Amino acid sequence: MRRSGQIPFEPTPDPAWRLDAVGDDALRESSRQSRFAISNGFLGVRGECHPSHGDPFGTASRTLVAGLFDTGEGSDAVPTLIPAPDWLQLRLTFGGSVLLRQPEYEGSFHSLDIKRGLLLRSCRFSTNGAVVHVRALRLVSARRRSVGLQTLRLVVEKGEGEIGIEAVAGSPDPALILDDQDPDLSLWRTHRSRKQLAMTEAISVRVDGVSPGLEARSRPGLWTAHVAQGQDVEFMRLVSFHVGEREDGSPGPAASADLEAANGVGWTGVLKEHEAAWTGRWAASEVRIEGDPEAQRALRFAAFHLNGAANPEDERVSIAARGLTGTDYAGHVFWDMEIFLLPFYALTWPEAARALLMYRFHTLDGARAKAKRMGWSGALYAWESADTGAEVTPAHAVGPDRRVVDILSGTQEQHISADVAYAVWLYWVVTGDAEFMRDAGIEILLETARFWASRATLEDDGRRHIRGVIGPDEYHDGVDDNAFTNVMARWNIERGRDAADMMRTRWPEAWDDLATRLGVDASEIEGWAEIAATIASGLDDATGLYEQFEGYGDLEAIDLEAYAGRSVPMDVVLGRERTRRSQVIKQADVVALLALLPEAFPVGADAVNFDHYAPRCSHGSSLSTAMHGLAAARLGRSEMALDYFRRTAAIDLGETTAALAGGVHMAALGGLWMTAVLGFVGLSFREDGIGLRPQLPATWTALRTPLQWQGRTLMIEVDPGKRCVHVHVETGEAMAVHVGVARHWLETGQTLRIELGDPAIAEPAFDPSSSTAGHRL
After folding, report:
1. Pair 224, 366 in one domain
2. How far, rounded to the nearest angstrom, does the alpha carbon of residue 434 sit from its chain's CA centroid?
3. Residue 740 DSSP one-character state
4. Are residues 451 and 527 in the same domain?
5. What CATH number is attached to the domain comprising 104?
6. Coiled-coil region(s) at which residues (predicted)?
7. Do 767 and 604 meet the contact criterion of CB atoms below 8 Å apart?
8. Contact 645, 296 (CB under 8 A)
């Protein structure tokens, strides 16, 4: 039993809640740093590297701060998320030897405590006849997001000698210029982006639980003490970061105030608050699986990083493709957030979902400017976005074949505007947040609909065409009438009309103000109905098959099975030009449309499209297998969906994975949750409640998940063995639950047991006489 106030260095006992690593492996070190990253939506800290690999202080990590962008030199330079000074660096000595520089030591052990949001480390050093056991703990607070905590405990297990601890802050990135520094506070500014970064810290040391009177020494701090066998030394460091714009004054006072508040509750208080916050997040978001430990582990890992990526307190930042776990893609925001992440937040953490969508509202002017610059109306969102909403996609990149290639997605991958609109509507359907819709959401829907209305050009065939785009399949650029883009555009325009009707009816005065400000009138909105109805979709009424884009069927068909086992992407195998002339698809495109808007497919045509396009997809993107898994699950092909699920999980957790240096793949992690909840549970949304169509894989003997819908807290449990599903309304008003064709009414506090039908639900054959539905979520 530990004495009062002693640091709890033991990880959660249940190994199902941990990610452990024993020893060190230079080949997998960068991947481990990403997997073992901890973040809270404002601060992110990557895992540790081996001390013999070049870090003079032995605790190298990279700290990232949300929104801290700067732009380098050169005409092609784009804003990049820059690392903050490393506040975790330490130099430990015993008897004159630098402990953490030892290339060999015993019992090296890292543990990512997923349940409590902690990173722990343990190792033993033998030096000059003595043995010292070092254990470390770090966190970035889920309760006080500007605050980080680092603690160490050194126990002399054999021998005696002088122990030394030198605490420093690592050298800042060259993009940061030191403006001011005193013993308690450092202030930097960026070269070009007018950002300021403040950091303040407090350090304490105790020997056998007693402070030697060296509290909060100036940086760099050096503590020494003579210790003998059985004695222990504890080191604790609290740090606070703040970011601000230069014109808003120094962020230093805010950082100092947050540190003072953290000091007020002490490191034990910071730890308890942090653990309590994580307990709350798990209660709201943990999907429990029985019968498949690996699937359970993957879902917990996914939820851990998803929960750590969002900050509901800041509407000016979003979630990058790698979150705050790495710097791939320069920390830019893509469609990943709206399509792959937003469903998780809307259904488990609406406050975070709202803040993330408000980021798109605050960057709406940048989207308007891009549309205007390219000759269209409304708002065309940046394919890659940083802090202002301006397009920051780089003009060039080095391809997989090491050749410099032009990047066209910044101008041609325009489905991003419909993706943002989709997320806005999904959030509205799930939460019913009327204030958000009135003040922000409807304006986004109108301006994105306006863009598509101007973008779809009427031609001599009487159809409107959207030419020269890139769909999700980025192997083919400059294509015409990409089905995903066009159908999502049509849906966006229809939702724009719905949004206008909603605002005119519910908030007429606000509508008058908005319509005047945007210069939109009734005739413009009425005209959208004809525009949406005449957009070419590529749907063949005879077969039910969408052509991915005009002319796709005429391209070279390639049997991907002949290239099974390849270790490089197909565009490297075939070369860029042959890939462009082929039917090989980089990632889910028509299949992505099937996953997002299944009602856009005639009855039975969902299987027709999946079976046509899945064999043609090379899965050259980490986004692809998750979308295929979701689509397969909705088709009732649970075992196929489970295979896609496992392949998605392996992107970040696979033993042979070697591509994680830049951070974990946030979209893939969000896709795991979507496959489980939207796919295997079969969750959908109705006007009066939710719909369920559970079809679990055979190895999943039960699934239990919490959800939030329209202000209600729900618990859903699927039990295939008993052929039933339980739905419980924990808080909120009564609601309807639809299972199959049956509608059930569920009162607050009641648990509804619903018998399931035949689990082998047959896929209806395509009926060419059927028509598409209303293109709603």
Report:
1. no
2. 25
3. T
4. yes
5. 2.70.98.40
6. none
7. yes
8. no
Give the confidence band of 318 by pLDDT, cuts at 50, 70, 90. Answer: very high
Instruction: Give the pairing of strands 221-228 and 396-398.
Output: unpaired
Confidence of residue 26 (pLDDT cuts 50, 70, 90): low
How far apart CA 388 and CA 317 sit, in angstroms, is: 10
- Given a contact cutoff of 8 angstroms between Cβ atoms, the answer to whether 682 and 634 are in contact is yes
Q: Is 480 annotated as a binding-site member?
A: no
Of 242, 243, 237, 167, which Cα lies nearest the Cα of 201?
A: 237
**Per-residue pLDDT at 594:** 97
Return mean pLDDT, the chain. 91
Q: Rounded to whole angstroms, how far apart are CA atoms 668 and 564? A: 22
Place of tokens 């009414």: 745
My answer on whether 253 and 354 are in the same domain is no
Q: Are residues 245 and 373 in the same domain?
A: no
Backbone dihedral angles phi then psi of residue 352, each to the nearest 5 degrees: -70, -40
Q: What are phi and psi of 200, to 5 degrees?
A: -135, 150
Let me know if residue 304 belongs to a domain: no
CATH number at residue 381: 1.50.10.10
What pLDDT, on a 0 to 100 scale, did the predictor assign at position 38? 98
Question: Among all chains, which residue has been given the structure tokens 């419980």?
Answer: 728
Looking at the structure, do residues 394 and 276 belong to the same domain, yes or no?
A: no
**Of 538, 558, 591, which residue constitutes the final position of a domain?**
538
Answer whether residue 735 is part of any domain: no
201 falls within a domain: yes
Q: Please pick, among 474, 494, 547, 717, the residue that the annotation labels catalytic.
A: 474
**Does the pLDDT value for residue 50 go beyond 60?**
no
What are 61's strand-pairing partners? none
655 is catalytic: no
Q: Is the domain of 118 the same as that of 234?
A: yes
Between residues 2 and 614, the one the model is more confident about: 614
473 is in an annotated binding site: no
The domain total for the chain is 2
pLDDT at residue 117 greater than cutoff 80: yes
Indicate the range of 18-27, 46-55, 163-172 predicted with least confidence.
46-55
Is 195 flagged in the annotation as binding? no
23 lies in a domain? yes
pTM of the model: 0.95
Report whether 314 belongs to an annotated binding site.
Answer: no
Contact of 147 with 141, CB cutoff 8 Å: yes
Q: Where are the beta strands (DSSP E) in 60-128?
A: 63-71, 79-84, 90-94, 97-98, 106-113, 118-127
All residues at 6 or more sequence positions from 731 whose CB lies less than 8 Å from its CB, including other chains: 712, 713, 748
Mean pLDDT of 108-133: 90
Q: Which domain holds residue 449?
A: 349-538
Could you tell me if 114 and 226 lie in one domain? yes
Percent of the chain past pLDDT 70, that is, above it, reads 91
